[in-house]
Amino acid sequence: MGSFDDNFEVYFNEKQIELNEVGNFYFTKDLKVGLNTFTVRHKSKTYTYRITRKVEVLKSMMPKDNIKVDGGTKVEISAVSYRDSAVTATINGKSINLSPIDSQTDDIDPNSNYTKFVGTYTVPKGIIEKEQPLGKITIYGSYMGFNESITGGSVTVNALPKPPVEKVEYYDTTNKATGEVVATMTPPANAGKSVRIATISRDFPLIRDANGRTPFLTQLPKGTINYLKSGSNSMTETGMYLESGDYTISNGKRIGKNKLNVLSVSTKSGATILKMKLDEKTPFNVEASPVVLNSSITGPHAINDFMATHVHITFDYVTEVTALPSFKNSPMFKSGYWTDVVVNNTRKFQLVLELRQAGIYSGVGCTYDDEGNLNIKFTRYVNSLSGAVIVIDPGHGKDDSGAVGVLGPGYYEREMNLQIAKRVEKKLKAKGAKVVRLKTENTNYGLHERTSLARENNADLFISIHNNSAGDPDAVGTEAFYFTPFSQPLAKTVCNRVASYWTGKIYTGTKYKDQRDIANRGAKSSRFAVTLQQDFPSILLEVGFVSNEFEHKIIKDPKHQDEFAKLIVKGIEDYFGRSTLPAKPDTATKSATATATTALPPETFSVASRNSEETTE
Ligand SMILES: [Zn+2]
């Protein structure tokens, strides 16, 4: 507003201002947020006015005060901010967008330019027995280039209570089942029809599938009846190939109703034994799951790191199952339940067992006892060397030199294997392990005899110690072979330890210094006779190459042999150390494990013929 001599023209923002009758002027102009520039021109002069309209972007925020919340709580963060502004909050390194809400609140005048913005932040789940401070919440508001922030209260996550220690009682005990029928299936339509039956005639037979040896078919017990596929004398209806000598053929009738009565779950010397009564001794299959095959790793059944969470037992020709007993005393399983699966268009009952710890599983052995009850025995997984039963097989033996090696007589692979094995034996015993070392210095063992002896001694694990040989004189390094998926972790831990000696020490400053990446040849899948058994983990280790002169000289040196032995023991300890289960099964079962002896096998075993497919190389 104002007045001027109207003999002269005045312009506001280049628009001429007119005076009214009383000789003055008056008008209003809205200021936009930010810089406003106005000009007044009078005669030849221009006056510029710059007016900055400021905005208070943020008026307030919540929470203002420090708060403590339980883990997982959704904390509401809000701010009163200028309408149409952008509002975010930060807490604990996270940014949360706040959105305007229309709802009226008492503290905001609906006619004002302010509105409420809200967002939520979910706090972490918390730390056991420790409060977790997340810092303060800061709100950032931004409108037309005006940026403001307000810092409010801090957020602290309450400590999580200490979880109750899982009570697992490892002493020998039996939990009985009720026998109550919990599920049934209609008997097959072809029940009573004639069929040829293959009855398994020895325990722990090796069973193939259509592609040959497989770790995924269980070694069925003696007495198991299988229906032969029409026209075949070795293949069963369910796709198993039985080996001659492992079964007898007879004529019979197909069964109809076949009840499976679960009797009990027992803990014995740390092993879990599932006992059941089948009307008919029909086949089944036990598999750890999941197992992820990986063809990029060498070997026909190579897998990614074994981390199974469950064990599935799938039963053929069973039509009725009963309730499960409590697994609360099982060191291996947390729980179990019945389900059904469809395999090749046939519905089958499946028992699903949940492992207490993923990947902590040592295999299964299945037999019928004197009362005709099926015993499915899950080998214990001990968590230290103390009391562990370890079977060591120095590769080859009395009349089998193994690889000749570049250094010739006196330094054959056999001698190298034995010398290292003896050192491993000594070191394991010093740590409290019960060691059964095969006496290859004066005994010839058959191909499958070595692992049968391991079974007789209740092996917790089996290691066959070898040295490698290759056509390429420069081939170097360590590798370890497994066949059963649950043996893969052992192959890996032992191989990694032994390879580290070559790569970390021996190759330093030699022409092999650039071979470090390939010298750890890794855990590989292969079907050596000594790695086929499914009731305990077994591996075949190749320490180094006796076909390589440099490596052979290291391998024959007692000082280096001692280092290799130390590292093999460390690798076994790494393997047992995978278990974080609360107690050592062995501590409560001392008397029971005493049956695992260090007694040496008799020296009169026959020499089994070699088989081109399975050697102990
Ligand atoms: Zn060998």
Mind telling me the C-alpha Rg?
39 Å
Number of strands: 34
Beta fraction: 35-45%
- Overall outline: elongated
Ions and ligands? zinc ion
CATH topology of the largest domain: Aminopeptidase
Query: What is the strand arrangement across the widest sheet?
Result: 5-7-10-9-8-11-12-6
Summarize the structure.
The protein has 617 residues and is mainly beta. The chain has 7 helices and 34 strands.
Blueprint (SSEs and pairs):
Elements: E1 10-12, E2 15-16, E3 34-42, E4 45-53, E5 58-62, E6 67-69, E7 74-82, E8 86-91, E9 94-101, E10 114-122, E11 132-143, E12 146-157, E13 173-176, E14 181-184, E15 194-200, E16 208-209, E17 212-213, E18 225-227, E19 247-253, E20 259-268, E21 271-278, E22 284-289, E23 310-315, E24 320-322, E25 333-343, E26 346-355, E27 364-368, E28 374-378, E29 389-394, H1 413-430, E30 434-437, H2 449-456, E31 461-468, E32 478-482, H3 488-506, H4 516-519, E33 520-525, E34 538-545, H5 549-555, H6 558-577, H7 590-593
Parallel strand pairs: 6-12, 20-24, 29-30, 29-31, 31-34, 32-33
Antiparallel strand pairs: 1-2, 1-3, 3-4, 5-7, 7-10, 8-9, 8-11, 9-10, 11-12, 13-20, 14-24, 15-18, 15-19, 16-17, 20-21, 21-28, 22-23, 23-26, 25-26, 27-28, 32-34
Helix pairs in contact: 1-6, 3-6
This protein binds zinc ion.
Walkthrough of the structure:
This protein is mainly beta. It folds into 5 domains: 44 residues, no CATH class; 100 residues, Sandwich (Immunoglobulin-like), CATH 2.60.40; 167 residues, no CATH class; 54 residues, no CATH class; 188 residues, 3-Layer(aba) Sandwich (Aminopeptidase). The protein has 7 helices and 34 strands. The strands form 7 sheets. An 8-stranded mixed beta sheet has the order 5-7-10-9-8-11-12-6, with no helix packed on it. Strands 13, 14, 20, 21, 24, 27 and 28 form a 7-stranded mixed beta sheet that branches. A hairpin with a 2-residue loop joins β11 and β12. α1 crosses α6. The longest helix is centred in the last third of the chain and has 20 residues. The radius of gyration is 39 Å and the shape is elongated. The termini are far apart. The C terminus is likely disordered. The structure holds zinc ion (ZN). Zinc ion binds next to loops.
